[in-house]
Amino acid sequence: QVQLVETGGGLVQPGGSLRLSCAASGSIRNIYGMGWHRQAPGRQRELVAAITDGDSTVYTDSVKERFTISRDNAKNTVYLQMNNLQPEDTAVYYCNADYRRDSDYARTRSWGQGTQVTVSA
Questions:
Q1: Do 105 and 27 contact (CB within 8 A), yes or no?
Q2: Which CB contacts under 8 angstroms, 24+ apart, belong to 44-49?
Q3: N or C: where does the chain have the smaller number of CB atoms within 10 Å of the terminal CB?
């Protein structure tokens, strides 16, 4: 089992910045990817950014020039630096880890509980 805890959400004005962190613990040896999704009220959860164990990254187009995903492998932590935040970025942001389960090596995705990001003047 992989446990994920997100921190760093909050209230920010348009144009402001936040840095989200997600720390993984538990059976973390076989994590091969981590990422961030977000879900606004009444909307479907969407991919924001993802990063592999080889540091390849993927971003949704709406955040590509404003957000940066990174990892600190020594701390088993993934970050999302969010700059020039806009009201449409308001959502609950969820961290995920993709890994092979120790018991049967099945591909598994673990989710954090989410952190609220609110962008408002």
A1: no
A2: 45/94, 48/80, 48/93, 49/80
A3: C
